[in-house]
């Protein structure tokens, strides 16, 4: 990102909000509100809008009733109006623009586009800062909302992982057109086969990951991830999921990539949700992408239980293989 | 920082390194190496160079033998060579430049300057990335150095707090000349008396704080702070300090400002050192500075033991009051 | 306890249940149920019966409406019916018996008595084992009740601390008549002034403490203590109390006595409640009581904020001094 | 254990010490001393004697050079001399006595015996209480030794798990002859096939477990377990093992049996070692053994990675199957 003499693009501030589809929205809401401890701030006919207690934006998660689970619109916040304009021009130049909308709940004018794999995204700058109602006001002036102590009580959204038929194409789009840093990569077969790429617009290790869709689908979600401050909070999440019949797919374990401590569960609608802590910050302006080959990547787990086969086979929406299975020599875990 | 239509300055990437003076350098080294678990990577006649296992730079802490404790040079890394040039020009324009040096161990050409209060600083871009020797190589490819499990085993440097006769002047310099974000502030007497200001060039809550020097000194250090990933690590630090006769001045407690969980001790040379975790990230490009007045500020502690009087009276080097004591109506804690 | 040739008494198994008085029972219930996460299992006209998720007995805490806060009946479970008989005989022989009752909710025949200071106690053997209703059934077969993840979610009761005009007399009663082990002691003035004694009938460090009542009252409560498994849970309790306006009197800090990590708050009724973790088990049959003198005792805090004056001055019910203040040379903290 | 009218046997206080054999004693010592943070207190020609910082006995682990890994002598402390006599008589009556020895380092006269499966054990009462040398003296008067903060820094020994050809016979011996409580059991095939039994003489959940030896061996060790106070310490152990090339066989995960949070590794000599926390105490004098059938037992893991096949196939010393494999319908994990 930071060649000497070339100024890096830093027009996107951070991941803004993620929309998840659910065929059982009430149950999905129970999972995010009653177990993860998020708060509902708004609702419309088919959608509920939620937030973590530490998110400064009004809403960072939108749950929308749909026939099948998966990811809806992924929103990115630009650092300024000029930055927004610059990114819109770049996206249009790539021919991936959809057009402007007024802005979903809590956000100003937003430009919608697709990534090369077809995931719907948008970029915006203006937004409504959250003001907690009295019963949710924190006693900490710098905390946007009360820490309620309900269930896992995730602090904020962290990142999402998307599947892509062509990881390289999507990764290049994120780097070149959006200006993201490439934090880490898994590349097999002597550097020729890009299995997964982890990218970010901020100091957060990755805000989006692209991982190969071994079933050859399009626009699918691997997982959405929420942050807790301590590893012990991840363990507590495991206790809460186990007591409430939530399927724990993997973890608690530690990733080699990102170094984070994690727990993967499935919310009742079928989407894979990660409770996540202790990833490292990347603040080097000339970060050298860490690239893992087959041997170095191993199982993708630094320590803790191995990832199950479902971890590469299942994504939302779930599909039958649309193309002959690609051979993936090892687990491209996230 | 981000007025609409005005692009923010983001030329400094992060705090690079801090130099601490110690009248008992061997004992100070024992504290940072044997108790905090940092690693010595280099030494010269009068200085030892250390690092945290998670720091990507070669050295982030320099301990220098001196008659009295205090802070030496504070180094800031620019995001690029053009960014370095821009900041050097701005500093010169303010009349605070000192001049170029070749660069201390691990860093390229560095431009030295003073902040308005007289603390010595420098800005640089080029640096040597750390390569661990065999016995310190981590089994994690993305970790620059082995996690040795020795003592507190701090991950990385986080921030430092400096005293200043005139907080506003130094805060403005950091904002206007260096391009820092003003994260939080304590302002008393109806908004007229600036007690403390917390600033950062990155998503880290603050990389430098300026707090009023009630003794009217110049160039003094309030504390230097090191990061651990979990609150339990802070508690473990308390156990280790208590067993080794290290003076714990305050904590473990939780700040209201920054929300961080902390422990203040004094290293044998006399400098105040903080073990720190769980502060929140600031990623909003239009962050609205949180300003605390007397009542809101309270004791500066969200919960946990109150801060002792020494917390505002003592800094390094320790001095007798050089001016009549300023009346500070409440603790300007950090 | 275990002189060679003399078999120790081990007739009491553990602390069974504690009754607390509250002038604001609804608010007190809110504290224990909504913040501490205990469960209400029964109620009568003036009392609510609660339990921790890990307690095997049906109810371990009874909250009773009363004019003033304080402790009601303290129940001890005998290891067997013969053991119950032996202790009843011993209590009668001391002239402190009150008589048999049928047994409060969940317990069989119970013999009531007073300790020398006048605290009401009872001893019983038979009890109803808790069977969770469907919605509170745990997915862990060996856990009596679901871990709900509500608030602090304390696991179980741990101990209580009682004030006494004459610590030695009450301590001797607990040792000689009930058969408790004397775990630790604070004795001042060259071993002549017994300030506090910590006793237990089990491997738990102490199940009851007697501490000198500096106001010369009778039958008063210093605090009641609830266990959590990890130190991080204590910190989480501080967050929850701070957000809900609960007065935190001391901690999070670490005791020297018991080594435990603690947080003292006041429930709305006025009783001092401790959230407690990491005390050490005592399994030595010939445990040598650890005795602390003035100098060794220090502030009673191993690390963390000092205990406030209220910690020795306040107990429930609160009283004006009924006798000239005893001089206590240092804090007899628990 | 506690039938009404029948007084329970409580003659054994707790597990005293465990001897482990190692073919690479220096490497095994490195594991226990440098990684687990135990302290060497004594050594003889072929053995080193170690302790945890919280153990009150002088030595709780003996490492002995041997051709093959495995367990040597397991020592139990009697609560008194009369209790010791009673147990010796009971053991002799069962025909399993070996005879008196003077006592190994730190212990008085000890009576050696075998359990029915042939594991060597001994029972004793007198022992030398540990007195730390100056450099290892704790600043906590009630802590026998300084918390050094080295590596995992386990607090104390917790339990061991032994394989047995006939679990029922060994379990009955522990209950009837030694007076242990049967905490939990795994029994398959409609209650006819005893797979594993967890027993204790104290409030600790289990001090010894007997699990079926599917290879039909004798006197073998499944694992030895060491306690840490917080779950975060278990995670830290995983970090330390991963950085030092120690094979992590399973975990960090949570047992259903005992509810404990655990990590299984292999020390360099080949013995399986568990770092263990958060098991529940059993203080009920009439504890009703929790019995798990095939379905309830499941994988033995409450949450976290599944146990590998090696977990039932491997024990020390490792042997080829001496009898046709017994069919074990599910994992008899500990």
Describe this protein's structure:
Four copies of one chain form a homotetramer. Chain A has one domain: 2,3-Dihydroxybiphenyl 1,2-Dioxygenase, domain 1 (Roll). A ten-stranded mixed sheet of chain A has the order 17-10-11-12-9-13-16-15-14-18. The first copy, chain A, has an eight-stranded mixed sheet with strand order 2-3-4-1-5-8-7-6. The N terminus and C terminus of chain A are likely disordered. Chain A is globular, with a radius of gyration of 19 Å. In chain A, 17% of the residues lie in helices and 34% in strands. With 334 residues, the first copy, chain A, is an alpha+beta fold. Chains in contact: A-B, A-C, A-D, B-C, B-D, C-D.
Largest interface: A-B, 49 and 49 residues
Rg of chain A, nearest Å: 19 Å
Number of helices, where a helix is a run of at least 4 consecutive DSSP H or I residues of chain A: 6
Structural class of chain A: alpha+beta
**CATH class call of chain A:** Alpha Beta
How many angstroms separate the termini of chain A?
A: 22 Å
Helix/strand order of chain A: EHEEEEHEEEEHEEEEHEEEEHEH
Which segments of chain A are poorly predicted (pLDDT under 50) over 5 or more consecutive residues? 1-5, 324-334
Largest beta-sheet details of chain A = 10 strands, mixed
Tally of domains of chain A: 1
Question: Quaternary status of these chains?
Answer: homotetramer
Q: Which CATH architecture of chain A?
A: Roll
Strand order of the largest sheet of chain A: 17-10-11-12-9-13-16-15-14-18
The CATH homology group name of chain A: 2,3-Dihydroxybiphenyl 1,2-Dioxygenase, domain 1
Strand content of chain A: 25-35%
Mean pLDDT across all residues of chain A, rounded?
Answer: 94
Using the coordinates shown, work out and report the CATH topology of chain A. Answer: 2,3-Dihydroxybiphenyl 1,2-Dioxygenase, domain 1
Secondary structure: helix percent of chain A: 10-25%
Shape annotation of chain A: globular
């Amino acid at each position: 990102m930071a060649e000497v003499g070339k100024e890096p693009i830093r027009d996107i501030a951070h991941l803004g909000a993620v929309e998840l589809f659910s065929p059982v929205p009430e149950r999905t809401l129970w999972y995010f509100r009653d177990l993860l401890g998020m708060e509902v701030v708004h609702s419309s006919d088919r959608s509920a809008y939620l937030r973590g207690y530490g998110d400064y934006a009004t809403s960072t998660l939108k749950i929308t009733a749909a026939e099948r689970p998966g990811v809806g619109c992924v929103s990115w916040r630009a650092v300024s109006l000029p930055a927004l304009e610059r990114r819109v021009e770049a996206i249009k130049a790539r021919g991936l623009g959809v057009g402007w909308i007024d802005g979903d709940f809590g956000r100003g004018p937003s430009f919608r586009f697709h990534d090369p794999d077809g995931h719907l995204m948008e970029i915006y700058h203006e937004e409504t800062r959250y003001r907690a109602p009295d019963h949710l006001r924190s006693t900490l002036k710098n905390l946007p909302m009360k820490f309620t102590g309900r269930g896992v009580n995730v602090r904020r959204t962290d990142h999402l992982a998307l599947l892509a038929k062509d990881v390289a194409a999507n990764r290049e789009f994120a780097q070149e057109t959006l200006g993201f840093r490439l934090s880490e990569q898994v590349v097999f077969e002597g550097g020729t086969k890009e299995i997964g790429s982890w990218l970010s617009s901020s100091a957060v290790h990755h805000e989006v990951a692209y991982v190969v869709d071994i079933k050859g689908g399009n626009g699918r979600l691997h997982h959405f991830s929420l942050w807790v401050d301590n590893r012990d909070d991840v363990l507590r999440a495991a206790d809460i999921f186990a007591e409430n019949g939530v399927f724990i797919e993997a973890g608690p374990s530690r990733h080699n990539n990102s170094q984070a401590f994690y727990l993967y569960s499935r919310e009742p609608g079928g989407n894979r949700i990660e409770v996540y802590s202790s990833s490292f910050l990347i603040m080097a302006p000339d970060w050298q992408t860490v690239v893992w080959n087959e041997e170095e990547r191993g199982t993708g787990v630094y320590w803790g239980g191995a990832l199950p086969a479902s971890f590469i086979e299942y994504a939302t929406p779930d599909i039958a293989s649309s193309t002959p299975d690609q051979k993936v020599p090892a687990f491209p875990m996230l």
